[in-house]
């Protein structure tokens, strides 16, 4: 558990907050590239870390990410005209370039213009892996680009989606890195159902309760859940946590009809404000075979068009409609009765309330990864507050990959899995 004071520290991410200062030291997913598909197209509202922003692609194709409100009279620039290499406020015609410089003032006589004195907040951006990323911290502390392995594969081999979750970022993240819940919440309860879920006869469900092992690294940690199977075997499922909001995991649900293809996946849980986060979902093929159109529909995940409005990025199941739980399905087909694996995650995490009170929890050994995460976040707050660099601002996570295997009990998992978890590189060392 955390004290209420510690809980406040790790959950609040607005401007000037300790956790907000940590978050601003990383590249942050801001919006999908396809949301700004064309130069001089409509601007898009973006909310990050409690800040209301507006994004646009200018005439040259450059991305601007500005304070949403014009510094003249605080009118929303989302109403603005995206034209001739800048975003122009429709109220008085002040125009801003992608760097936040005021370049024109239509309401001022030319001899009275003071454009050179006016600038609005603008954040650096980069396009990578179909995402527009923003950096909101001190320029001199800007880290290397977020070149996760999946951002380096061809577009045909990767897929990215997103959905708003109506709770604080940390309880969403903690739900994602909690491996012990997955074969419980997400399991099917009959082998004949066509509902999405972890197969009841598969090793993830057949395995007994996991033992967790966590290796802290310079980017966060790697960890495994080790589940005893029948006879002399264990099921080992590995993950990576990359500070501050990233999980890399195996893609368990990709081989019912086409064999075990080499696909991995993960999430970002990015704070919008203290009571909402944007959950980014990505998966990729690291083999020769590209993803299919069916893959991109994300039918079983709860992230595709069936479950998420692709214009507003809001889930169709929510607190107001009880997450569309079907009690008959709960009795006969799936453990939860909620359709879609990540829709199930959103339901349980949102059910905790906007910000869960961690001082009332009762944690156990199965919560080891969550406990380590909280320690890392609290330490990062301390480190940044003292002028240092938090974990995960280097490049050691670039080739991190998560895998799962059934192993003989006598085979050490590190010996068997670490070469695959860092393909083409030396395994990242355990932090001192």
Number of strands: 18
Radius of gyration: 23 Å
Q: Please tell me the total number of domains.
A: 2
- Mean pLDDT across all residues, rounded? 95
Q: Total helix count?
A: 10
Order of helices and strands: HHEEEEEEEEEEEHHHEEEEEEHHHHEH
Question: How would you explain this protein's 3D organization?
Answer:
The chain is α+β, with helices and mostly antiparallel strands and 432 residues long. The chain folds into two domains: 31-141, 3-layer Sandwich (Rieske Iron-sulfur Protein); 149-421, Alpha-Beta Complex (Naphthalene 1,2-dioxygenase Alpha Subunit, Chain A, domain 1), CATH 3.90.380. It is built from ten helices and 18 strands. It has helices spanning 4-11, 18-23, 169-177, 182-185, 203-206, 293-296, 327-332, 341-350, 368-385, 413-421, and strands at 27-32, 44-48, 51-57, 63-67, 81-82, 87-88, 94-96, 102-105, 125-128, 131-135, 158-165, 211-216, 220-228, 233-242, 246-250, 263-273, 276-285, 404-408. The strands form four sheets. Strands 11, 12, 13, 14, 15, 16, 17 and 18 form an eight-stranded antiparallel sheet that branches. The chain has a four-stranded antiparallel sheet with strand order 5-6-7-8, with no helix packed on it. Strands 1-10-9 form a three-stranded antiparallel sheet, with no helix packed on it. α3 (169-177) crosses α8. The longest helix is centred in the last third of the chain and has 18 residues, at 368-385. The protein is globular, with a radius of gyration of 23 Å. The model is unreliable at 253-258 (pLDDT under 50).
